[in-house]
Give the backbone structure.
Amino acid sequence: MPKPGHLDWLVDTGERQNTACGREIEIWELNPQENEAVLSAWAAHFRQHYISDEDLPIMVDGTGLTNAEYLRQTLLPDRTQIPGPSLRSGDFGEILVADYIEYVLGYWCPRELRYQERWNRNDSTKGCDVIGFKLVADGHVSPNDELFIFETKSGMSASANNRLQDAIKDSDKDKLREAMSLNAIKQKFVRRGAIDDADRVKRFQDMADRPFRRINGAAAILDDDVFGQTDLTVTDASAHHNAANIRLIVIKGPSMMTLIHALYERAADEA
């Protein structure tokens, strides 16, 4: 699939900061523009993580609601009721990082299943945040195949802690969550009859017999004000179980929560 237009607004600033343990932090910037076509496509892309366009009319049928009402009342995290706003910002960060992994770094990153099978719109999905797969050749096992597991944390208010450090801390838990997350993804593919996709996941379920490269990532998605108040140089990843293979990025941008709410509202209104 071609790269979505909104990723043209995600740029590498070229700025790098070093952690207390000597690792490099990439600084990226998200700068949305007033482009209605791109914003509409971004909103549709975002909405389709929660429900496909094909399934939407079927699910709305019988509820007595419009498409927009159904999305706001049944699927999308609430705009004001806690924990809806924080879940919105968390989902936004995960989806943006998944886009980055898939369209910038070139990994296969199936993620819609993570959001489409929620029972409670105001409850986050458990397991690893973002998982990317890269196979040297489909249907063949290579030790150069890669499993990329990213933990993301969003920080949209000035009171936020060092969200990159929080992401590193929770990323260390992915050592335990990895097997369960891969099993959940594979199970959902099997239920949908997508056996080829299930086989791609299966390839990464037994590292001892089928070696591959495991890469971990920690990302913080920050409002510009939070970024300006965060001392990233005190961040420490030395205790991480995969410290030799961890990638650290920060994505910053202006008025991020305003952007997030606008994206959710457009996703509902244009359905």
